[in-house]
Hints:
72% of the residues lie in helices and 0% in strands. It contains three helices and no strands.
Amino acid sequence: MATLTLSLPDSLKAFIDAQVADQGLAADSDYVLALLQLEQEKKRVRDMLIEGRDSGPGQIVDDAYFERLRDRIRRAAE
């Protein structure tokens, strides 16, 4: 695991310390790690949304769509 050293203004360090206490975390690094993981997840979701947008026109999902799926499943089970 890599190590990262940050210099923060006192106000941000106090904010992190308060968040650590409020959330019952063991260390300030746990809070920073959670923030980074959240940002990573947001980027992953954003990338998937962009991929979906760029994939072309979609398909209408209505009762008929689900009925076709059920028919495919029934036929495959036979």
